[in-house]
Amino acid sequence: GKRIRFENKNVKGSIALKGALIDDIIFKKYKATLDSEKNVTYLNPSETKDGYFIETGWASSNLGKISLPTIETEWEVKGNDKLTENNPVIIEWNNKSGLVFRKKIEIDDKFLFKFTQEIKNNTNERIELYPYAQITRNQDPDVTDFYILHEGFIGVFDEQLEEEGYKDIKDKKKEYTSNEGWLGITDKYWLTALVPEKNQSFKGEFIYKNSFKANYIQNKPVIINSSSSGISKTKVFVAAKEVKVIDGYAESENINKFDLTIDWGWFYFFTKPLFFIMNYLFELTKNFGIAILLVTAAVRLLFFPLANYSFRSMAKMKILQPELLRLKELHKDDKVKLQQEMMSLYKREKVNPLSGCLPILIQIPFFFA
Questions:
Q1: pLDDT tens, 87-98?
Q2: How many CB atoms lie within 10 A of CB 18?
Q3: Is there a contact between 117 and 131 (Cβ–Cβ < 8 Å)?
Q4: CB-CB contact of 278 with 270 (8 Å)
Q5: Which of 80, 200, 296, 354 has the most neighbouring CB atoms within 10 Å?
Q6: Which are the contacts of 206, defined by CB distance < 8 A and separation ≥ 6?
Q7: What are the C-alpha distances in Å from 151 to residues 95, 142, 184, 220, 338?
Q8: How far apart are alpha carbons 171 and 331 in whole angstroms?
Q9: The pTM is what?
């Protein structure tokens, strides 16, 4: 079918005019495998087995009265038909009943699409419509299935991060009501995400009905009076999960906790700084093996005072072992007296039996990170 082509420094692909779907995107800087010349193709048209696409639109509480665009609707390009970072594209559909629907589609120099949906109401009645956006994936992909890496549904709803696997959503759908946030589907290296308009509460949903869907719908309708217009805005990400890019979007687009699209694990506050250190050392040495060795050496040096304290404590405990064995033999029938004598010995020799373990416990989060 007819398509809008788009390209920037990072991606290229097309948007189907049937349904106005983003369903074809290639990551220009990433290969399918290390020894391949073929770039990663991420989205696919709805008719394919691996269909994976994004739609935006309007919903109504009175569908019998209002004709709305669907994924079968054929949109018409108005003017420029090549989407670039400096050239937005406008598409239009007339429902022949007094409503004209427009979408202004923009792309930046990386992975962000902006959809501005406009309705012109040429009828004599007031219209109330609810903006929505939806990601559809026909089937669940092969996942790494590793406990420290999440792949599947993801979202932040009023500060709360929610992660759900494909199997979980097959069993039961998940619904969330939020005043702020975002939602999407994440793979190990790639991401699709929807960000609703600011200051508009919405209902988010992860669901399986013949295909996997992550969607939101605005809670309050856009009211369009007769002979006037209504507008809604949505941000859409189809992104490679590059840390600097994701962090940049979180800041520049003011998207709360968007950096959590990358799974940093339980020890987020340790893992992320260690990543930046290791990445800096990689840029310096051009070798990840050397970078890992340098980070390991740095961590060991950082914890040397603790480790040294632990070693000293264990050495003192080793010296006391003969005396402890003598006390155990002497007071083997009196546990209370044995405990008292052991505590007295520790106090006299200035030894804490737990001091050898505590430094190790403090280091464990860093080893996990």
A1: 999 999 999 999
A2: 18
A3: yes
A4: no
A5: 200
A6: 153, 155, 164, 169, 173, 174, 183, 212, 213, 214
A7: 39, 10, 11, 31, 55
A8: 61
A9: 0.85
